[in-house]
Write a structure and sequence with these properties.
Number of strands: 0
Helix content: over 70%
Largest sheet: none
CATH architecture: Orthogonal Bundle
CATH class: Mainly Alpha
CATH topology: Helix Hairpins
Structural class: mainly alpha
Order of helices and strands: HH
Distance between the termini: 33 Å
Radius of gyration: 24 Å
């Protein structure tokens, strides 16, 4: 286990913001994908080949739609939690510094 731990709260906030933006981008892409999947559902023809293709294609496409949605939500949620953690660590660091300064001044 490390003896020291250093975290730059400002940089951590930047990374958290970038992560949130990436999650939002993924969610936007998933919404676009959903629209396209809905638009072309049933467009493969009603013959055996068209129906077989749609069955195989659409089942996998649905998994991607669902997975991308969950991933986007998870990334955005993780970014929010990371931002809260950065703020908590910065507050803890400031409080600790104030307490140390107060003890140093009383000596």
């Amino acid at each position: 286990m490390a003896e020291e731990f250093y975290l730059d709260p400002d940089e951590f906030r930047v990374v958290s913001r970038d992560l949130r933006e990436a999650g939002s981008d993924l969610k936007a892409a998933q919404r676009r994908l959903s629209g396209i999947l809905d638009q072309y559902k049933g467009a493969w023809g009603s013959d055996d080949i068209g129906e077989a293709f749609e069955k195989n294609y659409y089942e996998n496409a649905e998994k991607v739609r669902i997975g991308a949605g969950k991933a986007g939500d998870g990334i955005v949620g993780t970014a929010g939690n990371a931002q809260k953690s950065a703020n908590n660590l910065a507050s803890l660091d400031e409080d600790s510094a104030k307490k140390l300064d107060a003890k140093t001044k009383t000596k």
